[in-house]
Amino acid sequence: MKTLKKTAPDFILILSTMLLLAIGLIMVYSASAIWADYKFSDSFFFAKRQFLFAALGIVAMFVIMNVDYWVLKKWSKPLMILCFLLLILVIIPGIGMERNGSRSWLGVGAFSIQPSEFMKLAMIAFLAKFLSERQRYITTIKKGLLPSLSLVFLAFGFIMLQPDLGTGTVMVGTCMIMIFIAGARVFHFVILGLIGLAGFIGLVISAPYRIARITSFLDPWQDPLKSGFQIIQSLYAIGPGGLFGLGLGESRQKFFYLPEPQTDFIFAVLAEELGFIGGSLILLLFALLLWRGIRIALGAPDLFGSFLAVGIISMIAIQVMINVGVVTGLMPVTGITLPFLSYGGSSLTLMLMAVGILLNVSRYSRV
To answer: Is 249 within 8 Å of 273 (Cβ atoms)?
Structure first.
């Protein structure tokens, strides 16, 4: 593989990523300035931190872009073990940091990392290696499906101990797509789907707040001050935005109506300020990014690179669909960031690293 000629990275992928990142930095400041000034007496509090992680992520992206992705195949197992150790540490009281009812962070003060975010990328790399080496067994339960799924659901179990259903769902969904693309039998997926549905219902029933999220999704005005509050305020933001929006910086919902609008509900503020046109532009940029990712996956010189690219674009696509679905009221509320736009250091850094891997694969792509 190393004798293959290396070409220039995919320019359209770089352009779409940088445009999304630039818009994200602007929107993080716009969405968070009022809350940051009230809480920290610094309207740039969140924007400065997002800019710092963006800079670190860009450096990581360009470094990874120039380090052959086959190195990741060699190190996928140690990275997986490291992520499992971090997931164990984060659930230990006194070590893991708790925010909004979830113990999902490691670090000091405002500077912290979320191990579950990095587990998603480590799992993609490990599963890409496993599938590329044992694809001929993927139609069997014992040698193909069971070994791959057991590791995925072990990681999911640790993530649920935090608990973080949103991140766990993205990881499992991404891995399922990779396994399906590898050639798993449809019948097996039907069985897995039924088991997964039963498990999901069990997780919902086991936590009253998840039941409240389901009922508020069906009728948010049934409990407008508690479980339905976020989605109602999100719709109040999107509606007045109209076609062209109220104007950049002119959101009304960010004035303490929409809780922490710079994170999971940043798309609502964007739609309010930039309107249908602005929201559509963001979705078109994501579509452009995913299209380039699919082309890279199809043109990868080996199965490992192809599965790696499939995993990354699936992860991004699932997060976008869930986040936009939640913000627009099409899905129950869950904590999923919008890639490249939402405030969050771990999420932003991970996404830029993932794009760096895609760009590296593109340098060898035949399409």
So the answer is: yes
The closest alpha carbon to 341, from 332, 331, 333, 351, belongs to 351
- Alpha-carbon distance of 367 to 352, in angstroms, equals 22
Q: pTM for this structure?
A: 0.92
pLDDT digits (tens, 9 = 90+) for 279-299: 999 999 999 999 999 999 999
| Residues in the chain with pLDDT values less than 50 | 1
Longest dimension (CA), the chain: 63
Helix (H, G, I), strand (E, B) or coil at 113: strand
| Structure confidence at residue 230 (pLDDT) | 86
The dihedral built from the CA positions of residue 93, 94, 99 and 105, taken in this order, carries a sign that is: negative
Per DSSP, the residues of 146-160 read: HHHHHHHHHHHHHHH
Give how far the C-alpha of residue 142 lies from the chain's centroid of Cα atoms, to the nearest Å. 30
**pLDDT per residue over 236-267, tens digit each?**
999 989 999 999 999 999 998 888 799 999 99
Beta carbons of 283 and 23 less than 8 angstroms apart: no
Residue 224: alpha-carbon gap to chain centroid:
28
pLDDT of residue 300: 93
Q: Give the C-alpha distances (Å, rounded to integers) separating 56 from 22, 62, 182, 245.
A: 14, 10, 33, 32
CA end-to-end span of the chain: 17
Q: Which helix (H) or strand (E) holds 104?
A: strand 102-108
Closest CA to 319 of 152, 126, 168, 150: 168
